[in-house]
Every structure is written in C-alpha cells, then in structure tokens.
Amino acid sequence: MTRTLLCFGDSNTHGTMPLANVMAKGRFELHQRWPTVVGEVLGADWQVIAEGHPGRTTVHQDPVEGEHKSGLLILQALLESHQPIDLILIMLGTNDLKARFNVSAFEIAQGVERLVRVVRQSACGPNQTSPDVLVVAPPPILETGVLATIFRGGAHKSQELDKAFAEMGERMGAWVFFSSAVCAVSSVDGIHYEADNQRALGLALGNEIESRFAGH
Predict the structure, then answer these.
(1) Distance of CA 10 to the CA centre of its chain
(2) N or C: which end of the chain has fewer CB within 10 A?
(3) Are 111 and 59 contacting, i.e. CB atoms less than 8 angstroms apart?
C-alpha cells in the first residue's frame, strides 16, 4: 500500500534559491529540494507531493503580492485534490514575519493552529479519516540582503517561533519538528536555504517520518 505525504509550504518548499537581487528567480533542481530528499528516505512506499508556493503565509491575504498567498484559502482545495492523504507536513510562518503583517510569534503559531484544525476537520485521510499532521517550525531568519527591508523586525520575532510552536503543539496535541536543529537560512538573503541545508532538512524530516510510521 502506497502512502501519500503532502508537503504544504512556501518558497523553501518550492526550492527557491537564495536571492542575490529582487529579480532573481532561481530554483534548485528537483533532486536538491527537501521534499524530494524526504522521498528518497521514505522510498517507494510513499508518494511525496510538494506544494510549495513562494510568499505563502499561514492565514494572511497579502496586500502586496495577492490574496492567493494565504495558505488558509488554498488548503482545503489541496486536501481534496490529493486525497486520500496519510500525512500532511505544514511548514509555514516565515512569510508571516514580513513587516506588513505586524504579527507576533504567538499569532504566527495561531495561524498554523488554524491550518491544523482545517486538516483535522477535512476527512481527507484514508477512509474519510483525518490525515496525520506534522508541523515544522521554520528556522530563525536574518535581516540581510535584498529582503532585509521587507522582513524588518522579523529576525527577533523569528527567534521566538520554536517556543510559540511548541506551545501550540501542546495545546493541539500536534506533532512538531523544529527545523532549527538541522538547518539554517543563507547569509545571502536571510530567508532561503542553500542546497546543503535543503538536503539536511530533507534527510531529517524523512527520518522523523520513517520513525513515526515504522510498524504501521
């Protein structure tokens, strides 16, 4: 039986390369992106679907980049498109750190909590059950390079994300993984990951999921 994993995230799930300038559109090759590496670890028994959208937030409609950047607006449609889903991995929150949203780390975790509730109410798992959910707390950002102004004030708040996500996980009884333990942002733009960190994250998440589902 093949299981399905849906990776729901932003530009780092998409595989966006660190930006040297605002017009850069580089994307890592498929084999370099962390969802692909997760698939390598899990093997042929899993179908890994990467749904990474640059600029995606948890629940916020972006007044600059568009309403479609809200993860909340698109999540239910994606769940229904790819059902039955055994596991959805949610890795969002970095774009919520943009100055234009003016939200705290606690509120960002609340945004993720709302997404978890959508999944749990979706009946888009096997036999109309709820998919399992893995929440991944993104690593702290840096205010550097071409994105520094957009994320002004975000670096300090990002240091509080692990705590806020941990508290959310306790409230929700949710499975939370802290990516800061295995990867870090690039010094080029302070937001995106270099190829070695993409791979490190993919290996760690693959092992985490493999351990969780061993014997199931």
Answers:
(1) 6
(2) N
(3) yes
